[in-house]
Write a structure and sequence with these properties.
Length: about 230
């Protein structure tokens, strides 16, 4: 996991919670976001995945659902190459760096029954494979994509309705829950990978060795960026 820091892009949410600004360390970032979370909260990522961005016309490319437990917040999502998973908040935020982050929470807290139904569905899908191609056809298959997963979980609470969860995208889910007053924004910021120390150059490093070291660093950075664009990771 790469080191990362949190930089807030929104200093006021218009009464939706405490204002946030500046940059923090990894542990402080988790502490900043954690108090905003409750069961049913949704964490959206504004990422680089070209497939999602081209199809939806939005920078919002991923969504995850939150369940708050006594030991802390757990984040559930379905992602390429992994499938449906459950991660502690700090670990999940690390997987989304770098990228923009939007946190929304229910305008009214879920009832105990709603929270139980929400968590039960999320838990029941852990290990299910990831698939997004059926988003285009509108027909369910063995896999599930992130917005479909979050939508199906919300349907169990009867907070929302959806004719075909398969066709829901992260952007359309965000738009729907906000425009209908079901959710309210709590945070809008940026997760930025913290700079890492470059490989130390030997004092007697020659021209060829320096070029080789710099080429490796360049290739590594390019591969990381391409992975976000093409593999949506």
């Amino acid at each position: 996991m790469h080191p990362w820091i949190l930089v807030a892009a929104l200093t006021s949410c218009g009464g939706c919670g405490d204002s946030v600004s500046g940059s923090t360390s990894a542990s402080q970032a988790t502490a900043t976001i954690a108090p905003m979370l409750e069961t049913g909260a949704l964490i959206y990522t504004k990422g680089d995945c070209l497939a999602v961005r081209v199809y939806t016309g939005s920078r919002v490319t991923h969504v995850a659902a939150v369940v708050l437990k006594p030991e802390g917040a757990w984040v559930y999502d379905s992602t390429s190459g992994v499938g449906v998973r459950k991660l502690p908040l700090a670990e999940y935020l690390g997987t989304q760096s770098p990228g923009g982050l939007i946190v929304c929470r229910p305008r009214r807290p879920m009832s105990d029954e709603q929270a139980c139904d929400f968590e039960t569905y999320l838990e029941s899908q852990i290990g299910r494979s990831y698939s997004v191609k059926h988003h285009l056809t509108g027909r369910r298959n063995d896999g599930i994509h992130c917005a479909e997963y979050a939508t199906e979980a919300l349907l169990t609470t009867e907070l929302i309705t959806a004719n075909n969860p398969v066709r829901v995208s992260p952007a359309s889910l965000l738009e729907g829950v906000l425009q209908n007053g079901i959710y309210q924004p709590a945070f809008d910021g940026e997760l930025i990978a913290a700079p890492t120390e470059a490989e130390a150059a030997p004092r007697d490093e020659g021209r060829c060795r320096r070029m080789w070291r710099e080429t490796k660093e360049c290739c590594s950075n390019c591969c990381r960026k391409l992975s976000g664009w093409v593999l949506c990771r």
